[in-house]
Amino acid sequence: MTSKARREPSAFFPPAAGASTLPASLPSAGAPDLQFGEFRVAAQVDLLFRFETVVPLEPRAVQVLRTLAQARGQVVRKGLLLDRVWPDTFVTEGVLKKAISQIRRALGEDAKGLGWIETFHRRGYRLRPAPSATARRPERPSSSRTSA
Asked: How far apart, in Å, do the first and last CA atoms of the chain sit?
């Protein structure tokens, strides 16, 4: 199959001077997990965790979230997300909107407040705040309750 003819000169908007670009492929064997707040995107599998609990999320939505996390706070263009998560497949922006909606729901965002995913109209999306790469798991906050 031939690769898509549509390629954007810059994956991000606006392009930052000296900014690193996203890796050419999805996670490799030595890639660290991506941590933001109480959430963690596992590097080796398409899973999202909140502390140590798996958060239900479709694999393609996890791949979109991973791509946003790898951008470290930069806006990722819609075209790049589509090319990255659905390579060599004809899809519309509707599948991306569905994935973003699923991510927002999984992260507990509501319609009233600012959430983890920021939309840049006609451009793309950004994960805020910029996640930190970590090789260790997040610690669960201590609870004042004790179970009987």
From this structure: 59
Cα distances (Å, whole numbers) of residue 4 to 60, 71, 89: 19, 22, 9
Could you write out the DSSP letters of every residue in 37-69?
A: TTEEE-SSSS-EEETTEEEP--HHHHHHHHHHH
CATH number for 30-129: choose from 2.40.170.20, 1.50.10.150, 3.50.30.30, 1.10.10.10.
1.10.10.10
In this predicted structure, the answer to whether residue 110 has a pLDDT above a threshold of 70 is no
Digit-coded pLDDT (tens) for 62-73:
999 999 999 988
Return the sign of the alpha-carbon dihedral for residues 16, 9, 27, 93: positive
Query: Radius of gyration of the chain from Cα atoms?
Result: 16
